[in-house]
Amino acid sequence: MTRDGKMRLGLSMRYLGYHVAAWRHPSVPADGALSFAHFLNTARKAEAAHFDMVFFADGLGIRANDNPKGSLARDMRNAELEPLTLLAALAATTRQIGLVATASTTYNEPFHIARKYASIDHISGGRAGWNVVTSWSDEEAQNFNRSETLAYADRYERADEFVDVVRALWNSWEDDAFVRDKASGLFYDEARLHVPDHKGKHFRVRGPLNSARTPQGQPVIVQAGASEAGRRLAARCADVVYSNAHDLQSAQDYYFDLKRRLAAHGREPDDLLIMPGIVPFVAATRQEAQDKYDELQELIHPLSGLAALYGQMGDLSGYPLDGPVPDPSDKRPGNITSIANNLLEVARAENLSIRQLYQRVASTFGVRLLIGTAADIADEMEEWFRNDAADGFNICPPILPAGMDDMSDFLVPELRRRGLFRTRYEGTTLRANLGLKPNVFKRS
Amino acid sequence: MTRDGKMRLGLSMRYLGYHVAAWRHPSVPADGALSFAHFLNTARKAEAAHFDMVFFADGLGIRANDNPKGSLARDMRNAELEPLTLLAALAATTRQIGLVATASTTYNEPFHIARKYASIDHISGGRAGWNVVTSWSDEEAQNFNRSETLAYADRYERADEFVDVVRALWNSWEDDAFVRDKASGLFYDEARLHVPDHKGKHFRVRGPLNSARTPQGQPVIVQAGASEAGRRLAARCADVVYSNAHDLQSAQDYYFDLKRRLAAHGREPDDLLIMPGIVPFVAATRQEAQDKYDELQELIHPLSGLAALYGQMGDLSGYPLDGPVPDPSDKRPGNITSIANNLLEVARAENLSIRQLYQRVASTFGVRLLIGTAADIADEMEEWFRNDAADGFNICPPILPAGMDDMSDFLVPELRRRGLFRTRYEGTTLRANLGLKPNVFKRS
Ligand SMILES: Cc1cc2nc3c(=O)[nH]c(=O)nc-3n(C[C@H](O)[C@H](O)[C@H](O)COP(=O)(O)O)c2cc1C
Ligand SMILES: Cc1cc2nc3c(=O)[nH]c(=O)nc-3n(C[C@H](O)[C@H](O)[C@H](O)COP(=O)(O)O)c2cc1C
């Protein structure tokens, strides 16, 4: 829970929503992932609802595989706007909501990243945030001169140094270093310039950044690492963590662990906000909410469903969809025998058909699913919020823009009735609205 | 001259204008280079005047040196918005004008560049252009893990391959490859996907790009290379060249040489537009135009002036500004004896003081200066346009936004009276307004 007792809410709006069949829904603009109007429309709804931020996840290329053959051509994750250009365009067309986009430390250079996010922070008047990721997939590596992804430890070692360089660049100039005195002709005060001149294992970056300190001081840093290395990075540098948890206990464990780590870095528990993701299906009645979900489940193309099973079960496209899940065979990809048993056990225990099994796992890309009335979903959120499992939520509507309308119409009013969510923005920057300490850099 | 007999006009608007003292002018917002409102305001004026495009030059860091000591702190080129984020923000807030920004092939990866410009082309509805540069300075190298710039030949070899990869990525999907058929669940037509799978000397990039073909087919490619390697690249790939020439003869030589090279690549003379830069001081009378110029010249801080002489003359800060230019001494930086004689000869021949010499060379960053009435300047432009020296001009106002107002108030009406400039946009894309052939990619 946050100090002020209010939840932070983010809207995650990649593609057309977090349900795998979102693009087939009658209300969804199927070409929306390449349409600025689609994102602007939805971001403005989130702003009208006073969400803290919109968030764009990202991958540097198409990460889905074409297994079974033909599944990729049924997948909406093939074309989208690039998140930093999208963020900049939203910076110029929204006024209050925070704007967070993902950028990889593995396939970028710190100077570019420092500069681009600083620029968006200037354009937006202090609303930019960077979701730091290390990119896990071989598909991304293959777009950047490699055949496979970097080893895990190397990725995070590079990420650690990368973030330090970016922050040093953001602090090249103290607040008010640019005096711009027309009369004397002095543009900046030399005593308030600090050239980073970083020389490390992965990077040599002299600087300074050719930008002033930004309206937020520094853009907000977001992170989403679950591993030990990811948690270390978050505890040291992040202002916000997007997490993924499916039950209260594991969310609490994660929350407790991350907050506990902060002291070692001279930070307080409130300096890092933890926001688990949820995919909410909400309606006036439970039945209507369930109907909304079922409607989308029926729209999952069998090839998309089988693709979601492929990694664990191999190619099941030769079997009847409404028949039983077959025993594992040699046709599966290698090295997955033990994992395959998970899904197989589930299928056996509940006597599921192939279709039922893929509907279980393909729907929300792994994010926690909540179906019910606004009160049902607010109950779940409140329980996590009040019991040290969350400082807010990263809301991933199943379809856009309708899923955001459901938030405005049902969920947000319910949270406000409970005193759990703001009715106006407290500040003008993302940092201020999140309730984080101001970021000041002034020596004297 | 162009086939339609109309000039193409671009507005180059880096920082606060092309005069070194621009920021000190009373009408100029000294913090404008970090202000989106400043650029939007000026871009909208250019759009109202029906300019083809706005153009942002770029350097990846601060390239000016602090010689003599203290000169850098008087220089406006220390802080600015990042051009690709700025371009994306303008894409969302302008409607018709072309949007061109510079990106370096030396310190970027093709996948990022292909993706970002494609995204801006989608956001803007077909108005994006990429100015391809190779970055010459050591200061930029030092922000990207190097101590000095790459050798010239390596830079252009990399640039050649870089542009090819970007274009292959832009052609990952044929026009209309994304069928997005909700009923059948087919998102794209597999026969219209072309995975680049590039394997070259500098890059291995599999692709495909996670974006559809853009409204222009491909963003417009701009180039500004003067050397043999630069001209080869332009002749092979560029749609527009920004050139720099100070007299008709050399402009004609360059024009003739570049147009001549096109046939070898199966291209026609009209497929490449050549647009030299000019810095126009224009007013109702010649005297007023001269006064505008003189006012700015007086605002050049002596340290900025001496910095412009430093490379050739060494540190002259110990000499009286209004006294004679001294003989070269050992205090000059190395290896410049022969070049130093140029400036020295000029100073001696015209009996110039130090101040007069730096006012001669420091003012417009090397771009061609034109001072006079609209008729005077239109005469110069028309002469170049009608005599195979230019297809249009890259206009670099000395101060912003007032220098753009002068274009709208004086120069554009004069060009229109002569039938040399449009009164409305012909098309909806930059490519169409420039009169370039449509870029189509459809096999069947
Ligand atoms: C809510 C959430 C959002 C994420 N967004 C992205 C993303 O946009 N791009 C990406 O490459 N990885 C993303 N990830 C993956 C994480 O960066 C990270 O790789 C993953 O959580 C595994 O953690 P670890 O690397 O610490 O093991 C996301 C993870 C979560 C939980
Ligand atoms: C009008 C014009 C604009 C240019 N803009 C840039 C720029 O924004 N960034 C950059 O690094 N170089 C820029 N250049 C430099 C060129 O890319 C190129 O390096 C220079 O003209 C020398 O040509 P060469 O490299 O073929 O010898 C520009 C040159 C001209 C003439």
UniProtKB/TrEMBL annotation, chains A, B:
Q: Which GO molecular function terms does the record list?
A: monooxygenase activity; oxidoreductase activity, acting on paired donors, with incorporation or reduction of molecular oxygen
Give one Pfam hit by family name. Answer: Bac_luciferase
On the tree of life, the source organism's domain of life is Bacteria
Alphabetically sorted, this entry's keywords are:
Flavoprotein, FMN, Monooxygenase, Oxidoreductase
What InterPro entries would the database entry show?
Diverse_substr_monoxygenases, Luciferase-like_dom, Luciferase-like_sf, NTA_MOA
Keyword Flavoprotein in annotation: yes
Name all Luciferase-like domain ranges: 22-384
Q: Which residues bind FMN?
A: D58, T102, Y156, S227
Which PANTHER family does the record match to this protein? Answer: ALKANESULFONATE MONOOXYGENASE-RELATED, C2H2 FINGER DOMAIN TRANSCRIPTION FACTOR (EUROFUNG)-RELATED
- Which protein family is named in the record? Belongs to the NtaA/SnaA/DszA monooxygenase family.
Record-given protein name: Monooxygenase
Query: Which source organism?
Result: Caballeronia ptereochthonis
